[in-house]
Amino acid sequence: MVTTGMFAVCFIVFGLTMLIMGRAFLIREKQANLYATAGEVRRYAEAMHTEGELGSWELRMNLAAIAQSTGDHIFLADSAGLVVSSSDRDAASPYIGRQLPQAVVDALRKDGSYEALTTLDGFYDGLYYVVAEPIADEDGQTVGYVFVNYAGSGVFGVWSGFIMVFILIAVGVLTLAIAFEYANDRRLARPLNEMAEAAHRFARGDYSARVSPYPDEDEIGTLTQAFNTMADSLERNESRRREFIANVSHELRTPMTAIAGFADGILDGTIPPEEEKRYLQTISSETKRLGRLVRSMLDMSRMRDADPARREQSFDLGEMVVQTMLSLESRVDAKGLSVDLNMPEDALLVKGDVDALTRVVYNLVDNAIKFAWEGTALTVSIWKENGHAYTAVQDVGQTIPPEELPLIFDRFHKADRSRSQDREGVGLGLYMVRQILSDHDQDVFVTSENGVTVFTFTLALAENGRAPTRGPERAEE
């Protein structure tokens, strides 16, 4: 209702201003008409030449005719202020023979004219707009005065009529404004009330609530769309959170069950002493896997909470890849793999968080080493294409089934195949790769055919990055 109140105040202020200006306009117009009439009567009276003729019956009849056409009251006074003629049609005019106030006569003599809203000191019973001018003879001597008067009630009556019209219009306009504002408030309040109800449902853990689509494309419509988009995101995040908790619970339960079972077997004598060392090694392995799982989850949390400004760093992609490969050299040698690096001769500068992207390369290469067949080649290629830097990590091993490819970047996803029979992994490496690249607004994709599996990801080129003179052939080709 604030809008209606402001509109009402503006309308009233505007209306009052117009009424005041209208009243002043009416008065000015009437004064101009009174002066015009006074001038006409003065010229007619001056044509009579002598003072004695100011009270003639002929002049009086002409005054009556003029007064009838203008609605004014007219009378003539001699130079001493005594009324000698009037526009009254009655022969016995109540005004003829009356003496005007001396102050009025003195003002006429001094100023040459007179104008006032007055009763002329009781000459009239009510207020009149009075205009007076002197009447002069041929020698320029004042022989009398002409008074043209209009009842103030007439002007106020017209103005009062305007006030009544304004009041009626104001009441009508305000009624319509209040009705419109009420309807508009109801229309605007509907989605807001729905949002409030949905927010209460969100607080209770129910993320299925939505706001009905708003028909107008205004601020409320935009807010409604944004709210529903937020609700969709909250529902997806809640689903992912529950899935994550379920997956973590499952991943933790498996090694903890093994640890507890083997420990209880050793303690209660179910496991013979000669087998205790083997089962203790299993307990140690499962404990270390729990530690890796916790560290991976902490690393993933730190990556997501990193300062976004770090993603604007510029670094040499080739140098970073070489350093990462060197850190994995012992594992490469242990599996008898050969390494083929296809990189441009010139530095290829890219933009991103160097620590997070080093983790991407590390996880992909580590994953390739883990599942590559012994004695095969591990290929890492870097090239520039379509304004992006591409990095591909290729290994030779068992083919990933096509139905598994869309799921391979999910948390804790492991397919039932020899490629995923990995007791060292925790199922978060590839998920972390996708999340880091997603935070950089980049893509990662995988192909696996005829035993050759290639993971490829993109990075944004730095502004001063230089492309290689000739890019390498793509590893999957």
Keywords for this structure?
477 residues; alpha+beta; Beta-Lactamase; Helix Hairpins; Heat Shock Protein 90; 3 domains; seven-stranded mixed sheet; five-stranded antiparallel sheet; 12 strands; 17% strand; disordered C terminus
In short:
By secondary structure, the chain is of the alpha+beta class. It contains ten helices and twelve strands. It has helices spanning 2-46, 57-70, 102-111, 152-203, 219-268, 276-304, 317-327, 329-334, 354-371, 429-439, and strands at 73-78, 83-86, 114-118, 128-136, 142-151, 314-316, 338-342, 349-351, 377-385, 388-396, 444-449, 452-461.
SS strand fraction: 15-25%
Task: Identify the overall geometry.
Answer: rod-shaped
Number of strand segments: 12
Low-confidence stretches: 415-423, 465-477
Secondary structure: helix percent? 40-55%
Q: Indicate the CATH class of the largest domain.
A: Alpha Beta
Q: From the 3D coordinates, which CATH architecture of the largest domain would you assign?
A: 2-Layer Sandwich
DSSP helix count? Answer: 10
Could you characterize what this model shows?
This protein is an alpha+beta fold and 477 residues long. The protein has 3 domains: 156 residues, 2-Layer Sandwich (Beta-Lactamase); 66 residues, Orthogonal Bundle (Helix Hairpins); 153 residues, Heat Shock Protein 90. It is 52% helix and 17% strand. The protein contains 10 helices and 12 strands. The longest helix has 52 residues. The chain is rod-shaped and about 155 Å long.
What is the strand and helix layout of this fold?
Layout: H1 2-46, H2 57-70, E1 73-78, E2 83-86, H3 102-111, E3 114-118, E4 128-136, E5 142-151, H4 152-203, H5 219-268, H6 276-304, E6 314-316, H7 317-327, H8 329-334, E7 338-342, E8 349-351, H9 354-371, E9 377-385, E10 388-396, H10 429-439, E11 444-449, E12 452-461
Parallel strand pairs: 7-9
Antiparallel strand pairs: 1-2, 1-5, 3-4, 4-5, 6-8, 8-12, 9-10, 10-12, 11-12
